Amino acid sequence: MSLTLLKTTFKRNWIMLLIFFFVLAMYMTVIVTMYDPDSMDELMSMLDLFPPELAKAMNLSKVVTDLTGYLASWLYGMIMIGFPMVYCIILGNRLVARMVDNSSFAYLLSTPNSRMKIIFTQGFYALASVALLFAAVFGTGVFLCTAMFPDALDTGAFFRLNLTTMLVNMTAMSISFFFSCLFNETRFSLGFGAGIPIAFLLLNMLGGTSEDLKILKSISIYGLYDPVDLVQGAEVLWVNLLYAGIIIVLFAAAVIIFDRKRLPL
Amino acid sequence: MIDVKDLTLTYPGGKGVFDLNFSVNEGEVMGYLGPNGAGKTTTIRALMGFMRPDKGSCTIRGLDCVKHAPEIQKFLGYIPGEISFLDGMTGEEFLKFMNDMRGTRDTTRQRQLLDMFELDPRGKIKKFSKGMKQKLGIIAAFMHDPDVLILDEPTSGLDPLMQNRFVELILGEKAKGKTILMSSHIFEEVEKTCDNVLIIKDGRIVEQSDVQTLKGSRRKGYIIKTSEIVSAKQALESAGFEVQTVGETAIEVYVTGENTDRFIKTIAGITVLDLDVKTQSLEDIFMEYYGREEKRS
After folding, report:
1. CATH of B219-279, one of 3.20.20.450, 3.30.70.120, 2.60.120.200, 2.40.50.100
2. Residue B242 pairs with which residues in a beta bridge?
């Protein structure tokens, strides 16, 4: 890994990371503020006004009354997947394919650093920035909940929730990064890098609406991710391992392909 | 120093370069000429290790251009044909970044070059003019004092004054014994700097010669205004020159360098009202080479 490049990549991309963090922090503030332990029943009854299919698609169907479960359901069911996915799509494309497409990548390769080292650094930044984003989100969550509802948050469960959500988003990042390394042109890199994560998300939402369509959920990478079950103590170790496995395989494949392919620089 | 052996690199569309063989010796400045799409940049991509060849090999100082690209980059300077910098950076940041990536600490040469090309690297590169970007590219390629230089159309976008500075720079590097491969469209630049030239067409090398020979074969068109157009034409044609009538009162004669003296002596017997020289562009020279190539085949 090249520290000089990592530093420069960070300098060129940290603003985007900050913007996404602010959006998530804002949502989090709104949702934590809306929490009222005394009127959870009312909130749940409000759900009855939703068409049940819609509620299921949004991962909102389960009855929860505690703060941790409430956050898992209202915040992590959709927002913590959808918004960071956009970040992953944009960043994945920016880090490799865009620089190959506009041929500025030539400058990275006209230094005494191997292609493997350079692409590994870019990929490392991609994953590390997602980790940083969720570390910040976790910290913000703990801070907001402690400030507004002392002792209401199950910090352990909330940590596990953020860990798995981070892995899910890293999986989306790996997909986007993989296509960014595979294609030399932005339109293909963005087409696949955005299309596939979005398709997975839609499949997952569709699969949630009825028993007949449940099969759709199981072919989506988001299908194994159930934030409410997770904070209620479901076993997630093998789910985490599976996500980690997908990330490692995609990352390794991306790096190897990029190292060997022809670059039209 | 730079050795290309049986290099074949084809693209899916069937274009590419085929069975290239050439070497650039240590201390030699080689011009690499050819029309757009002939394969100059493709050859350079292979030399930079950006693309693996289908067949054959390229080596620099005996190191394989793909396998040992990082080692080669330690003593190589490169100007891309289409320069594109990392976006969002200032010129200063970019030069510092390149120095850090290369591990270069000494910035003496960088400052000399900035002075030489009168470039102020402060400010966002995005706001730079085409010429300023080109200057920045030149400085980035030369500032670590590399032994080998691969330059893809290094003066595109520079004004004539800066093109001259660039010629000075190349002559200075040549005096220091640097090895240079330079693709170019500007004949004057090649003429002033290069020892030898390669001419490539449709992915194959069609001519490899020294600059003196190329100059000798470079034809000039002389436009002569004369009152006795018929006899003038006859006299020149019988002396073996190619003559064309231009309008009512003028003729154009094509003369290669080595025949200039004979041409002057031939027209001494004609009443010349006016004499104009039409310098042949590089394209005309290409056309001549290609014309010859086609006649041969």
Report:
1. 3.30.70.120
2. B254
